[in-house]
Amino acid sequence: MNPLLSQAEQFDALVQWLRAAIKAPEQFTLGYDAESSEFIRFNKGKVRQAGQVQQASLSLKLINEGRHADVTLTLGGNPAVDQLRLAQALAQLRETLPLLPTDPYLLLNSEPWHSHKVQAQPLPDTAAVLEDIRRAADGVDLVGFYASGPICYGYASSEGAFGWHQANSFNFDWSLFHSNGQAVKASYAGAEWNSLRFTQRMQLAREQLSFLDRPVQALAPGEYRAYLAPAALEEVMSMLCWGGFSAQALASKSSPLQKLYAGDAELSPLVSFDEQVSQSLSPAFSGEGYPRQDLSLVKHGKANQQLVGSRSAAEYGLEVNGAPEGEAPSALAMGAGTLEQADILKQLGTGLYISNLWYLNYSDQPAARLTGMTRFATFWVENGEIKAPVNTMRFDDSVYSLLGSQLEALTAERELLLSASTYDQRQTASNLLPGALVNKLTLTL
């Protein structure tokens, strides 16, 4: 029997038992999370550690006349034992509920929806992947981490809702180190391994590594033309996603994009952001039990829709659109531009090529002003040619400048950047981003 199908069947069996065990007016929601992952760690271009992780858990919420409590339990794969654990969890929550106050912002979905999506593209053969990595990294000091395997989510409720989602994916995150201690960082992720595409990514990283031989270019604080590679732009977007598109943050006036949604500021007409669930690895339902849909968050530089979870909907009189807990995008897609990959350096002319950013924070959150550091392969470019690496420097600039008045072009090619987080378990969150050419980036030190 297909083990992944077996997981779905075991989850369904637990749901059926729970529906029979519930006593009116009790209600429940039940979430399921599982992964079957292969992890491989590289150092000096060789495999240093390999292992597998298989785990599954349930998140049970019991509701009774406005009171609710939650418990999470680990599953062992034995149906009888798992059912016993669920029964014990149910009994524990029944004892807890009378001690709790009612929740005025609890908004359960009463619709009996059904969703089933299995993205079952064959995962890459590990031996073939290792051979590609060995061949492409020959002669360089590669440090990296490869993760691959299916991730499963399930949801069910006492109201008849049932969802199942499986996504097969891989993520290879690596750095090439120079003998002087500097490095080039890169990644390759997706659902289908393409040897040619991976080799091209590695070749670009190797070319950048060769420039780290050159003497470092010292730059004074000031304003510079700059190209932000997709990985650098992802750091900017990660900051904006902390409340930027959240209905709760916007309603409480704490969103970094408050001015954008209020109509007091705009981004460049080149900029559009979508929550593109339908073409991502993310499930088509939220952990709160609402079907998810594609959303247009920013359209041609102007605010459009926002992410609305059930609590925000109840508190502010809005309509739930399936936003995940925290109301942050999990499948963000930025519209592509027209700048071809081969023309990036030529169009940049003289300025900075920034591969990565890190340690970002807000220097002025209401103004969407960010500060952070350049990281890894940042180069000084003159007349369309890389001349020298640049020391780590701090920038301080507004998103309304970087993606607004100073944005010159976006690349035609976008890069899929999957979350490399393995905290609790692997994730399906993703960003599909182009690179950005900006006329002015402010370096402060």
Secondary-structure blueprint:
Blueprint: H1 3-21, E1 27-43, E2 46-64, E3 67-74, H2 79-96, E4 114-119, H3 126-136, E5 141-157, E6 162-177, E7 183-190, H4 195-211, E8 222-228, H5 230-240, H6 247-251, H7 258-262, E9 273-275, E10 295-299, E11 302-303, H8 310-316, E12 331-334, H9 344-348, E13 351-364, E14 369-382, E15 385-389, E16 394-398, H10 399-405, E17 407-410, E18 415-418, E19 430-433, E20 436-443
Parallel strand pairs: 4-6, 8-13, 12-19
Antiparallel strand pairs: 1-2, 1-5, 2-3, 5-6, 6-7, 8-20, 9-10, 9-12, 10-11, 13-14, 14-15, 14-16, 17-20, 18-19
Helix pairs in contact: 1-2, 3-4
Total domain modules: 2
SSE order, as H and E? Answer: HEEEHEHEEEHEHHHEEEHEHEEEEHEEEE
Poorly predicted runs of 5 or more residues: 1-5
What's the number of helices?
10
Can you give the helix content as a percent range?
A: 10-25%
**Multimeric status of the protein:** single chain
Kindly report how far apart the N and C termini lie. 60 Å
| Helix-strand category | alpha+beta
Number of strands: 20
